[in-house]
Amino acid sequence: MKNVFLAKRLHSFKYALNGLWHLWKKEINFRIQIFATITVVTTLSRLVEITRTKWMLITICVGIVLGAEAFNSDIERICDFISPEKNRQIKIIKDISAAAVLIVSVMAAIIGVIIFC
C-alpha cells in the first residue's frame, strides 16, 4: 500500500516537473522573469546585507510572480484551445490574466525597493 502511495506522489512530481520544463521551453516571459530576478537579486544582495526575513520575503515574491506567470500561460493556452480564432471575450480574459501578473510583479518590485533601499 505504501508503495502505491509513493508511486503516485512521484508521478505527480514528474508531471509538475514536465510542466515546469514546458514553461521554460515555450514561455519567453517566464525565462525573462527568472533571468531578471537572478540578475537583480544577485547584484543587489552583494551591495546590501539581507536578513533571513528579507530573504524569505524575496523568495515568496519570486514564487508568487512565477506562479502567476504559469497561471497566465495556462489560461492563455486554454483560451487558444477553446477559441483559436480572434474573439473579443477571449481577449478580455487574456488581458485580465496578464493584468494579474502585472499586479503581482509591481507589488514584488515595490517590496524589492523597500528591502534594498
TrEMBL record:
Q: Does the keyword rRNA processing apply?
A: no
Provide the active-site residues from the annotation. 69 (proton acceptor)
Q: Which residues bind ATP?
A: 15, 27, 76, 94-95
**One annotated GO molecular function:** kinase activity
Keywords for this entry?
ATP-binding, Cell membrane, Kinase, Lipid biosynthesis, Lipid metabolism, Magnesium, Membrane, Metal-binding, Nucleotide-binding, Phospholipid biosynthesis, Phospholipid metabolism, Transferase, Transmembrane, Transmembrane helix
Residues reported in the UniProt entry to bind a divalent metal cation: 27, 76
Q: Where in the cell is it found?
A: Cell membrane
> How is its cofactor bound, per UniProt?
Mn(2+), Zn(2+), Cd(2+) and Co(2+) support activity to lesser extents.
Query: Where does the chain cross the membrane?
Result: 92-116
Cofactor(s) the protein needs: Mg(2+)
Recorded protein name is Diacylglycerol kinase
Binding residues annotated for substrate, in chain numbering:
69
Q: Which GO terms describe its cellular component?
A: plasma membrane
Give the family, as the similarity comment puts it: Belongs to the bacterial diacylglycerol kinase family.
For the biological process aspect of GO, one term held by this record is: phospholipid biosynthetic process
Membrane topology annotation: Multi-pass membrane protein
